[in-house]
Structures are given as C-alpha cells and as structure tokens.
Amino acid sequence: MAMPAAGIPARSAVLSTTELSPIWHPSPNFGDRRDGLTPRLVVIHYTAMNSAKAALDRLCDPASEVSAHYLIGGDGTLWQMVREQDRAWHAGAGEWEGQTDINSRSIGIELDNTGSHPFSEPQMSTLEALLPRIMKNWSIPAPGVIGHSDMAPGRKSDPGPHFDWQRLERRALAKPRAPVTASATPSPEAFRAAARRAGFTASVDDAQLLAAVRLRFRPWAQGPLETGDLDALTLPDTIT
Ligand SMILES: [Zn+2]
After folding, report:
1. d(CA 18, CA 9)
2. Phi, psi torsion values for 182, nearest 5 degrees
3. What is the pLDDT of residues 44-88, one digit of tens each?
4. Which of 28, 38, 145, 231 could be joined to 174 by an S-S link, Cβ 3.0–4.6 Å?
5. How many angstroms does the Cα of residue 25 sit away from the middle of ligand 1?
6. Which of 161, 152, 71, 75 is nearest to 116 (CA)?
7. If you measure from the C-alpha of residue 103 to the centroid of ligand 1, how many angstroms do you get, rounded to a whole number?
8. pLDDT, tens digit (0-9, with 9 covering 90-100), for 23-51
C-alpha cells in the first residue's frame, strides 16, 4: 500500500466524527423546542422517496410542513436542514417512555431509502459517525436512539425491517437486545408490561404493539406472540 503524500492524511475506511462536514441546506420547517426541552432522543427514519434530492426538496418545502435535522443520502452524503437546538418537524403524533411532543425532545435523522431495500454501507458509515457526535452534544445514552416506529406504532413503520439495528447495538449506538432464553410462551399482559418498561408506551392494540417491537428487534418474526418477543425486551437497563 502506498504511503500518503506528506501533509495529506490517509483516508480511513471508517469516517470519524471530526471528518463529518454536513452540507447546510436550511429548511424553513422548524420552531423553538417547547417548555425549554432539549434533545433526549434521536429518531431514525427512512424517507420513503426515490432519491435524496426529492427528499431534500420535500423536507425544505414550506408547504410540506415536515423536516428533519439531518438527511443521509444512499452514497453517504450528509445534509443538515435544521440546527440541533431547534425543533424539527419529523416525529408527529406518538409517545415514548410516557412522553409526547417527541419533536421537542429529539433530533431527527432521515435516511434516503424507499423502505423496500437494504441501507447502503456508505450511508450506515455516515450514520455511525453522526450519532456519536449528536449523543455527545446532548448527553444522549444509547437507549435514546429509537426508530420512528418505536414512538408511533401502528402509524409508522420506518426505519423498517431492513434497518440493521444490531449493527448500531454492537457499537453502543442503540440499546442492546437481550439474549434469547428458553421459557414458556408469554401472555399478552406480560408482553405489554415488558414493552412499557422498554419505552413502548403509546396507546395501541396488542397486534400493533407486537408489530412495533418486532420492527425494532425481530423483523423476521411472524405469527402470534412468542418467547423471543418478550426476551428481546427484558434486558435489565444497565446501559447509561
Ligand atoms: Zn419517519
């Protein structure tokens, strides 16, 4: 392998946080965070659009009344549309850990993806460089990184079954799942109680709750409630 020329740093395969330089592309769709709230969560989305350009146009169109703080293109390009201290309009109605107005409590990241295909390596690399920076800026712990479907079950399904949560978990960028254990099929009540403890407090029926938990932890799972669904939720909350 050739040595880099003097004064030119070698390009690492993994983006470091300091190498990130978002392209500023301001959106008019934001306001002040309410009640002096600061970000405690990061909400991950997919755009469900055919290109990053189309998503950028929509997220910056006053008529759309939607936005996010960041958009990551499929090629790893990072755009910033709203300052982190401001309230972007990405989460909408929903609830997490008993709290509503998620927009006032979160940073929103949109991933350029139609929802029907895997997320690219450059895009995931940029996300993995961006998340630690946001988490450090606002002292957000790994369990504070959630999906849109976590806080809006029954209404939203992004970032969807193709998103690699385990990859983020391995890097302490999301709450880890519990190991699988052998136990009896859980009751819906036990499952709901465990889901509530894990943050899934939004008011939805059993099927919608199961679907939301599976989107996050077990997108391959099908059929009725089973042991693995409960197991995924029951890790003691030791991550700070
Ligand atoms: Zn979303």
Report:
1. 13
2. -90, 120
3. 999 999 999 999 999 999 999 999 999 999 999 999 999 999 999
4. 145
5. 19
6. 161
7. 12
8. 999 999 999 999 999 999 999 999 999 99
110 counts as catalytic = yes
Six token digits for residue 66? 């939607």
- Tracing tokens 């290109």 back to the chain, one arrives at 51
> Is-cis flag, bond preceding 22, omega within 30?
no
Q: How far is the CA of 67 from the centre of ligand 1 (A)?
A: 10
Smallest Cα–Cα separation from 109: which of 125, 93, 96, 90? Answer: 90
Neighbours of ion ligand 1 (CB under 5 A): 45, 148, 158
Other C-beta atoms closer than 10 Å to the C-beta of 36 total 7
Domains in the chain (CATH in brackets) are 8-175 (3.40.80.10)
Query: 227 CA distance to ligand 1 centroid (A)?
Result: 29
- pTM for the model: 0.84
